[in-house]
Specification:
Layout (H helix, E strand, L loop, with lengths): L18 H12 L2 E2 L11 H12 L12 H15 L9 E4 L1 H13 L5 E6 L4 H8 L3 E6 L9 H7 L4 E7 L11 H14 L2 E5 L24 E6 L12 E4 L2 H14 L5 H11 L3 H24 L12 E5 L8 H12 L1 E2 L1 E2 L13 E5 L4 H14 L11
Parallel strand pairs: 1-10, 3-4, 3-5, 5-6, 6-7
Antiparallel strand pairs: 2-8, 7-8, 9-12, 11-12
Helix pairs in contact: 2-9, 3-9, 4-5, 4-8, 10-12
The chain binds glutamine.
């Protein structure tokens, strides 16, 4: 492939500015309440911030060991044992990365050959296809259909071929809020085992579940050896800017991820990863309280959206709510979100960038509820006052 006229490598040219950066920029320009990009507008817990400050004062100022500080790898293994019951070797099976987004890139670059196929469920987090492209992989999209977004078993079977290197699962799921249930996880596991391919399981919303507890697919029979579990500190501790993530996978697969990681970011910010030890050792009550607060925000956003004339889809996990925009009379998700930002003063994310196949992909918009109840209420007031469903507006658009 030839370079683009601007000089961007052709493999990255289709991706442009991410939808999150674009919507956050527009939201700031127009003073919109930002329910777009998924970052909390409240601070992380004091005990984790204190641990970060103490690490700075204690002189954790040089490079960390590139696979993670030993005590951090141990804390990640202990947390995974408590939450999922699996024994993990902290030295051989855990790699600390600069956020889960880097772990995704390191996995693609370290384990996928050019021409390998990777199966992605759409709508997907936008870094999946971009990092697959960096690795020269071929994306095989499998669509989760609204409103239930259940695993499409036949479509998945058809998408998996002898060239499939990995199936990328994300549960709890961004943007649909699905938590794949035991049957769905068993089906993915069965298909992966039959095809002898890997499963990359992005579990960054692991502690944000409401409908049913999160289970890692790595716990299913025959899956520990073929699963790469990815997670991070960001969502569980409301510190998305700290960019501390990790990959958990057997030694042979960790070797590939480490081979890429050592030349991507090499090592993750030392004092911030050091604070992970205190964070991950938090008592069960910390995670229960986190869930309780998020459930309250989830209910508040659902109520606000219903009140404004939406019929929002109730998420089972994560911190996103999807809703159709058709009843407001705009031709696409992008047009609707632009109206929302400019004229209503609320930012949401159009979902079409989360699809490889754009046909029928512009019906949904995503609202984030990782925001204070005040912010959610303020967005509600604007939506109620300034957004008009077609019927209420007399059928005109
Ligand atoms: N994960 C965040 C979201 O879905 C965005 C992260 C980013 O901007 N790269 O909103």
């Amino acid at each position: 492939m030839a370079r683009t006229p601007h000089g961007t490598a052709a493999r990255l040219a289709p991706f442009g500015e991410s939808v999150f950066a674009r919507i956050s920029r527009l939201a700031a320009e127009h003073g919109a309440v930002n329910l777009g990009q998924g970052f909390p507008n409240f601070d992380g817990p004091q005990f984790v911030k204190d641990a970060g400050k103490q690490a700075i004062d204690a002189g954790f100022g040089q490079y960390a060991r590139f696979i993670g500080l030993p005590e951090v790898n141990r804390a990640i293994a202990a947390r995974f044992k408590t939450d999922q019951g699996l024994e993990i070797d902290p030295e051989l099976e855990i790699t600390v990365t600069s956020g889960c987004t880097e772990a995704i890139a390191a996995t693609m670059l370290g384990l996928v050959e050019p021409g390998d196929e990777v199966v992605l469920f759409e709508p997907f987090y936008d870094s999946y296809p971009a990092t697959a492209a960096m690795a020269g992989a071929v994306v095989k999209p499998v669509r989760l259909e609204a409103p239930h977004f259940r695993l499409p078993v036949e479509a998945l079977r058809q998408a998996v071929t002898p060239r499939t290197r990995l199936i990328l699962l994300n549960t709890p799921h961004n943007p649909t809020g699905r938590i794949f249930d035991a049957d769905e996880l068993r089906t993915v596991a069965e298909i992966a085992r039959a095809a002898d391919c890997l499963v990359v399981s992005d579990e960054v919303y692991e502690h944000l579940w409401y409908a049913r507890p999160h289970t890692s697919i790595a716990t299913l029979p025959g899956m520990r050896e073929r699963t790469i579990v990815l997670s991070s500190l960001g969502k569980s501790f409301s510190l998305t800017g700290w960019k501390v993530g990790w990959a958990i996978t057997p030694p042979n697969l960790s070797a590939g991820i480490r081979a890429a990681h050592q030349f991507l970011t090499f090592a993750t910010a030392t004092p911030l990863q050091r604070a992970c030890v205190e964070a991950l050792s938090a008592p069960a009550s910390y995670f229960e309280e986190l869930r309780r607060e998020y459930d309250e925000r989830r209910q508040a956003l659902l109520a606000v959206l219903r009140d404004a004339g939406f019929d929002p889809l109730t998420p089972e996990g994560s911190y996103f709510v999807l809703a159709e925009h058709a009843r407001f009379g705009h031709p696409s998700d992008e047009a609707f979100c632009e109206h929302l930002i400019r004229d209503v003063g609320v930012a949401a994310i159009p979902c079409s960038p989360f699809y490889a196949n754009r046909v029928g992909a512009d019906r949904l918009v995503r609202f984030a509820f990782c925001k204070t109840l005040d912010t959610i209420r303020q967005a509600g007031e604007r939506l109620k006052a300034r957004l008009h469903p077609l019927a209420a507006a007399g059928g005109s658009c």
